[in-house]
Amino acid sequence: MTRRTLFDWHSWIGLTTGLLLFVICWSGTVAVFSRDLDGLMDRRLSAPPAAAVAWEQVYDNAQERFPGWTITQVNAPLEPGYSVESWAEDEDGILRRIYSDPATGDVIGASSYFNIQRFFRSLHMSLFIGELPVFGIPLGYFIVGLLSFPLLASGVTSLLFYSRFWRGFFRLQRHKGAKVFWSDLHKLTGLWGIWFLLMIGLTGVWYLVEWKTPDGPLPPDPPGVVAGAQPLPLDRLIANAQRAYPELRINVVSPWEIEQGLLELHGQDGSLLVRNRAARAWVNSYTGEVLAVQRPAGLTAYQRWIDTADPLHFGDFGGLWSKSVWFLFGLGLSGLCLTGAYLQAKRQRRRGLDRHRIPITIAYSTTTGLLALASVYAFKEMLTYGPDGAWPAITPAQGLFIALWLAMTIATLAVWAWKVR
Predict the structure, then answer these.
(1) Cα(122)–Cα(129) distance, rounded to whole angstroms?
(2) Which residue range(s) make up the domain with 54?
(3) How crowded is the C-beta side of 265, counted as CA atoms within 13 Å?
(4) What sign does the dihedral 366-411-347-188 (CA atoms) show?
(5) In this structure, is residue 336 part of a structural domain?
(6) CATH number of the domain encompassing residue 87
(7) pLDDT tens digits for 312-343?
(8) Does 188 share its domain with 108?
(9) Has this prediction a pTM greater than 0.90?
(10) Could you read off the pLDDT of 232-246 as tens digits, one per residue?
(11) Left (φ > 0), alpha (ψ -120 to 50) or beta: where does 127 sit?
(12) pLDDT mean across residues, the chain
């Protein structure tokens, strides 16, 4: 292909997918700090720092406080100063969050499962559309995953048609008019963020492919209920797991099958770039026997990749510093989606290519329709987090943040459409 052909492909990819990619990338950018935002806006997420988590006290106190709830997962504090967060299902099967003091296990409070993190995670992963399967993949997940291909194609074609691209790393002409400025800014942002674009694109493709690939190592089957017996104390089970796997720093305790004889523990053992599920231990909750351990070092390359894709995509592997880098480059990637589509739309208008407005209109109408469909499914999903189909209870600050983000995003899209009318 000639450079001109590659440029045309690059331009059309940006023009036809730019607005939808903007919504996906922009929501993912904010999602990087969504848990931190919840911590700022809900005081129940705060607790005095603790040297260690009192897992048994947390679990027992939560069960005593909410006797009809089934606790499925207990998560260590995100950072020092955060509370322990347990996930549970209430008597009606509605998901809940329970917050506890990590040192004493005292229950601080409970909330709906819906919060800022849940909103942005559902929007970014699937546009809230977890139904309407396409090739066995829910429509929302299929669309978001499919968009990774044009994202990758736009990055690859830009490097191929941009002659001597390294000259653009420090080029930003601000005194030659808006056209030159926005063009230079688009190239500058793209060059500095090309590594990020390719990484997000590749992991995005993986999340689509993952639906049709084999799972990682399977956990052992639950031993089964022992009639008349009670599971052993949680601290004893955890101590047995730590003796079998001394390097494991436990971050997640999953007691959802504890009555069936199985306790699962997740964490980190110092391995590079893996999520908590890469390092695991399973314990027989009636006998205390350690049934199996899973070390990242013992995984195959494929299995290791399954647990590495998330840290690469979400940028949470290094705490505040890595999330700040991912947020900054996520902003740049979001801006690339908007400016790329804007530059091509204005270029066509200058050249009088009005006949091309029809496919553009179709592309933008599709984007609008998908976002309208997403809003319908968002409403349906949020009602599942409230009692008796009611609206989920969140703090006023959390609700205001989500409302302001939605207003800003809609305003940005409206201004963009007005500028290229």
Answers:
(1) 8
(2) 43-114
(3) 30
(4) negative
(5) yes
(6) 3.10.450
(7) 999 999 999 999 999 999 999 999 998 888 88
(8) no
(9) yes
(10) 999 999 999 999 999
(11) left
(12) 92
